[in-house]
Amino acid sequence: xxxxxxxxxxxxxxxxxxxxxxxxxxxxxxxxxxxxxxxxxxxxxxxxxxxxxxxxxxxxxxxxxxxxxxxxxxxxxxxxxxxxxxxxxxxxxxxxxxxxxxxxxxxxxxxxxxxxxxxxxxxxxxxxxxxxxxxxxxxxxxxxxxxxxxxxxxxxxxxxxxxxxxxxxxxxxxxx
Length: 176
Prior knowledge:
The chain has 176 residues and is α+β, with helices and mostly antiparallel strands. The protein has a single domain (5-164), classed as NADH Oxidase. It has helices at 5-14, 28-38, 58-65, 73-76, 94-111, 125-132, 161-164, and strands spanning 50-55, 79-86, 115-120, 138-147. Strands 1-2-4-3 form a four-stranded antiparallel sheet, with helices on both faces. The protein is globular, with a radius of gyration of 17 Å.
């Protein structure tokens, strides 16, 4: 498979957070294709401490959508995917490892014409664990609402490079 660098950059720059979804369901084979590719996300020591809980049940989605105001898009999505991490397998890096897996889900979904939005979970760990019957060692890192986009959001503003890039140490502006 050959991809041009420009095409990959364009792909990355066109991913958006989708909060409005079509009613159309996502076929199981597509969901599994997304999760299969997401298994290849990097993790410290290749420990792969993640699990994916695919949520289709309306009552469970409703409970998860009620954890905070930012989780409402889950009600409008046909599927939620909870990325949870075994903190015993990767005690020092589980949050980053599973964040990588969540980003892979989002990118693979985008490649397949689906949309996602990241729903923050770290303020509601116990509530989510209880709802999904997760063992205590599995920490929910993200909930991703997933479906076919019913909106096409414009890019949101980004900080200029001059504000966020330094050379060798903080405060030393990186300039050309």
